[in-house]
């Protein structure tokens, strides 16, 4: 039998229920894995609360790593015993997963399952943000909100590796220290400082080429004021709530700005893009240029506590569940 965390009704962390379900053998083009580590992400919260639509009941989660235990007909890329990971699963909060082989990638030697589970969704998000949505280089100044969070901890290291000047917002002095350790040049304590004013001061009024924002409702208006003319605003999350009152004419008023609302699933919809994105992430981690900080580990049965910690903004780095 399989242990899993299911959502029968939408709501707070308390709706995450730990229960036993049946095992399912793989069908054609599927594999079955024994889960060894599971990533916890804000997208899991969005589905749990109903911000992102899903029929109930469902098993929570999108990201996991594990070992292949069985392959279905037609699967040629994986063998029993391979270590694999995915960031585009449906229902990763389980001790066993049966899913299409196409959503998985092999985890290379030198990267543990825990590290893979902690970095696939967040790390591949950082990769498309920095290398495809906007190609960051030494000539750029960027602002990254939630710089010490799961995506931020990875993306700021990577951006510094690419030579950019990195400004990051954080919620505390402790998080500021972590962000600076990760290569952030200038930290802004958003609870006590006006980040728009601080960005202007830091850049001498020149502002930023791109702003990366996973916070949403609390930060989007100020973020536009942090951009140079023709700058790009990248809204890729909603941790403070969805942006619902956006007027596109603001982009014209504030300097012919650009705005995008990307998703990892859009950037990795093609198998070849998924493989390229994952391999680029694996390479930068194995090189030592980017480290994957795991800030907290919870037992799978304690998934509700993991969600509470994540939503409190008290976490740093990645949070994972251990089956």
UniProtKB/TrEMBL annotation:
Keywords on record: NADP, Oxidoreductase
SMART domains, A to Z: PKS_ER (SM00829)
Pfam families: ADH_N, ADH_zinc_N
InterPro entries named among the record's database cross-references: ADH-like_C, ADH-like_N, ER, GroES-like_sf, NAD(P)-bd_dom_sf, QOR-like
Coiled-coil positions: none
Matches recorded under CDD domains: QOR2 (cd05286)
Domain Enoyl reductase (ER), residue spans: 11-321
Listed name of the protein: Quinone oxidoreductase family protein
Organism the protein comes from: Flaviflagellibacter deserti
Lineage: Bacteria, Pseudomonadati, Pseudomonadota, Alphaproteobacteria, Hyphomicrobiales
